[in-house]
Structures are given as C-alpha cells and as structure tokens.
Design brief:
mainly alpha; disordered C terminus; single chain
Length: 580
Amino acid sequence: MNAIALAAIGIFVFILGYRFYSKFVAEKIFKLDPNYVTPAHKFKDGVDFVPTNKFVLWGHHFTSVAGAAPILGPAIAVYWGWLPAVLWVVLGTVFAAGVHDFGTLVLSVRNKGQSVGTLAHRLIGQRGKVLFLFIILILVLMVNAVFAWVIANLFISFPASVLPVFIQIPLAVWIGHAVYKRNKKMLVPSLVALAVMYITAVVSSQVNFLQIDLVRYMGGEEGAGLFGLGAISTAFFIWIIILMIYVYIASTLPVWQLLQPRDFINSHQLVVGLGILYLGLLFTNPQITAPISNPDADVSWFPLLFITIACGAISGFHGLVSSGTSSKQLDKETEARFVGYLGAVGEGILALVSIIAVITFFPNRDEFFATYSSFQAASGAGLGTFIQGASQLAEGLLIPASVASTIVSIIVVSFAATTLDTSVRLMRYIISELGVEYKIPSLEKKHVATTIAVVASAALVLLPEGPNGFGSGGYLLWPLFGTSNQLLAGISLLLISIWLKKLGRNYAITIIPMIFLMFMTLWAMFQQVFLQWAWYAESPNTLLFVFGAIIFVFTLWIILTAIQALMNPRDAGISEIDLD
C-alpha cells in the first residue's frame, strides 16, 4: 500500500473525530459553560493557577503528553504488522484518548483543579483515593525513569542534539519574563527561539567541537571512564545527574517562567517536525515494505498490542497532565475541547507518522524481518529505527542526513524532557497530597517533596539490573510502564463515568472504552507479571514482578470499589461533587 494514502486516511479520520465527535461530547455530554469561572481565575496565584491563552496552553498540554512514548510504542508495535498498529492508533485516539483527555480536564476544572487522584476520594471513597494515589505515584516514578533513560541515551547517540536542546532553556526563561513581566506577545519570540535552535542544530551537526560527546571526551567507547564504569556508563551517569538537577529546578519554578514558554516553543517544533515528515512523505512517496500482519510473531498481538502502543492511542498519564497542570491554567471552560481532545489528536498524528517512518524505512520485507526478528528485537530497535526512518523522510526535502538525524533526535529529546519535568511536578503534587492524607507536614513542603521525587527517579533509572548492566532500570521498566499507564487510563474513564452518572448524563462514551481497555490491559498484565516475568522466566525479574503485582492488586481493588460507587453511589459513601 502507498504510504501517502495511509497517512491521508488516518488524518481524515482524526479531522472527522475532532469536528463532529468531540463537538457532540462537548455540547451534549459535558455541556461546557462559557461563563463558568475556571480554577485558573478562582485560585490565581501566579505559580500553578495561571489563566493562559488557549494556544499557549495547548502547546504546554500537547508537548507534555507527546513525549517519546507515542513514537517508541508504535515503532515497536509494527512488529505485528502495520494494520493492527494503525487501526488502534486511529480508532483509539478518536474514541478513547480524546474522550479520556478531554474528560479528565473537564472533571478537574469542575472540581477546583484537583487531580484525578484527589477526586477519587469524592467519587469512589477514601480507600479508593489512597490506592489510586499510590498507583499514580508508581506510574509517574516509572515515567521519570523511562524518559530520563531515553534522553540520556539519545544524548550519547546523537551528541549534536545536546547544544540545541540546552540552548532552549535560557531562551524559554527570557520569553517567560518578557510575556508575564513586560506584557509582550509570546508567538514571535517563540518562533525566534525555534529558529535559533534549528540554526544551532545545523551548525552543531557539521562542526565537531560543538557536539557535546561525553563518550569521546573519555577516550571513546573503549575508554576507562570514571569509577571503573567505562566511558558509555560514565556518560550515562553524568547525563542522568544533569537531567535530575534540571528537572528539580524546572518543576519548582512558576509555570510561566520556564514550563509554559518552553512548551510553546516545543509546540511549534512539533508542528514544524510533523510538517517536515509529512512533506517529506509527499516528496519521497515511499512504498510500505513492512508486512500488513505478521502471522509468525513469537508473541501474540492480542492483547499485547494495546499496552505496547500505550500513549499513541490512549494514556493514563495524559489524565494526570489534564487534571494536574492544564486544568489549573484553563482560561475558559469551552476551551477544554481544544486543549484536551485536540491534544490527543495531535499525539495520534505523531504516532501515525512514527508507524509510517518505520514501515517505509526498510528497502524490502526481508530487511524488515532481519531487524524485527522477534518482539524483544523490535523493542530494542524501535526508537533507533524511527529516527533513521524519519531522517530518510526529511532527506526528501533535501535536508542533509546528518542534519535530519540531529533535528529528529532534538524533537524526541525535547518532548521527552517536557514530559519528564511535568511528571516530576506531578509527582511532587502527589507526595504532598499523601503528606496531607497521612498528616506528615514535611511532605507538604515543595522542596522536600521534589527532592524525594528526583532522588527516587534517579535511583530507579540507575539500577544495575538486566542484560544491559548499569543504567538499565529505565529500559527494564518499559513493559510495565505500558500496562500501568493503560490501567490508569481505564480507572480515570471509570471515574468520569461515575461523575456523568451522578449528573444524570449518558456515560456510554466513557464506560465502553473503559471496559475494553480494562479487559485488554488486565489480561496482558496478568500474562506479563505472573507468567512471563515470574513463572516461565529463566531468570525472574524481581523488580517488574513486585511493581506489577502491587499495581495489579490495587487496580482490581479500585475497580471493585468503583463498580460499587457506579451502581449505588450512596451506599459507597460518596460525598457530593462541586458542580458550580
């Protein structure tokens, strides 16, 4: 099949979903009120609660949720063939992800900007809230470890991307100061900042001394490194420490000072990046060489496909962003559709081009199967294959190969970094909420909670387990990230369903994808946790088994509590919800 036709069909379905389905949900189900006073105005504090232009907020929301996951998951899932991956990305985005992201944003806005974890108290009771908060805490911890692992490895593999990524930070701080202290407009400065980044990318890709290559500084791959770790492991360790220092600062600063302007720059970067890839697709007109399906796969796509793609179709982490940061910045309630649903559509478009970049990269089917020989091989090759495939598309616009690979890696790193510091900020919120819950005042302090979040994330990503040795913690956690992420999305859809039922509205739009998602994810998680990682494994993975078993049991407990609340809210002891 022609790749252009496949992209056109997918984008057309996304447009129909936003134009008609999201409008129906906004007007008939959520009944958005243009006169409703949002938490950004009610509790305006200049730090977390900040009324924000919808385009700027969309930029923050989109880039916070569009990390490496919507690229990596689909790039792995094509192992089972491109058709199952495309169908789940397109249909999952329209009927599950869009409603989930939109719904959690509206639910939070209608309840003082509280996170879905806190709202669980009102919707399914105190016990459900605590269990849910612990699941969220484990998820964001894994997000921090996985994305830090991805960024550090990309910095090592593509040293020309380091300077353009880091030059964005002072530019974003300058823009934030100009906009919020001097009342300047954000659009033009952010475009200038993007131009500076890409000029730096072109120059650094051609000039060796501008490439911050820590491995080279230590004598190459065979170098001794520090503390006997070797050059690559030492470079990885240094990058993780630098990233943790950065996210500590970024997650404690007011959102206007770094988070919003940097995310707005990244939103332009994503538009430019997607434009380059889709225009490159038009000019190169590549043929799909990967198979439509893979009947000889060593593991079944059903149900593992639905946890492998994860963020490319629906993601519980999106609900944390919607209710954790975006709801505190929404200027008008009617803009929730633009921010929430369209943000999910943007992520679907990114996942779609990720699939296309991989399935058109190989010259023939044999080459595809040589790289994607097994599911494990696909897991290791996915991100690198995407970068090579995306660079190949960009070369269709006469962009040199070295520049194209640098720009693509910058895009991936920028989004992963955006997700990383947003996730650390969310983890700080959760730790503070648990401090309130268990009456531990010290945990309520911003810097104490942030320190715990950063130290725990660094410790997890630096775990010396697995075949890759030092620093493989993030890699090992990827399978569990997908399952816990989808379970969180299912629980959030269940909370929205309870809320809609209490309002006397049709909750079929949330309960149907919730049932599908929970069934597939719990089934896949049972296979992974209790069979592959423990029972049948030659060397059981204790880390994954412990984390997975806790999440599995907690999720079943929450589902039973939530079903009780859905069937009979009064008997479940549910308090009233703020509907004003």
